[in-house]
Amino acid sequence: MNTLTKTVSGEQIKRYLESVVAAMEVPPARPHWKYQRYEELVLDCGFIMEPQALPETIECGAPKFGYWNCQQLAFADNSLTYVEGYALHADVGFPISHAWLLTPDGYAIDPTWDSPGCYFGVPLSTTWVESVLATRTRMDDINIFDGNYIEKFSLLKEGLPVDAFANLLR
After folding, report:
1. Could you give the residue ranges of the DSSP H alpha helices within 8-160?
2. Which of the residues 1, 48, 68, 82 has the least number of beta carbons within 10 Å of its own beta carbon?
3. How far is Cα 112 from Cα 61, in angstroms, rounded to an integer?
């Protein structure tokens, strides 16, 4: 466990997300949408994930390419689960939108950051992620949640489809 996880926890990320959701307009700006913000979607569908150091068999990917790094590893290794949500690293003072992987034994590993952070997110089905990316004509935004403007905010309007969720019962 690194120094960050001793002083900062996934619970703090959860409280941050709750405060963002609470600060939204009342009544909601788009009452017919399931979610008003992605923080609300992640809070509703995600959970805290305990970090683990990156295994020696996985090389750290390019900095600032977290979504790409994680997607490519998940596409190549079906034992890893792609996750999007919010994470907190010692070098950043607040939770940020981020991607990481979930190991078969349920630990969050991060092939982008030099050391583990704290994680709160939604494990996504590799097949579903691949299908979303295959329909996008713009490949400059491979972040599934933040890039959902390409699909006209379907995830905020309707929520995640059932097939979007990773099957964690392996």
Report:
1. 10-22, 38-45, 66-76, 126-135, 154-158
2. 1
3. 5
Separation in Å, CA 102 to CA 78, 82, 106, 154: 11, 7, 6, 25
Backbone angles phi, psi at 11, to 5 degrees: -60, -35
User: What crossing angle do the helices spanning 126-135 and 66-76 adopt, rounded to 10°?
Assistant: 120
132, two tokens: 């979303």
Whether the ω angle into residue 28 lies within 30 degrees of 0, i.e. cis, is: no
Pair of tokens at residue 137: 């004509």
Please give the structure tokens belonging to residue 157: 């309007």
CA-closest candidate to residue 160, choices 40, 49, 72: 40
Specify whether the CB–CB gap between 126 and 74 falls below 8 A.
yes
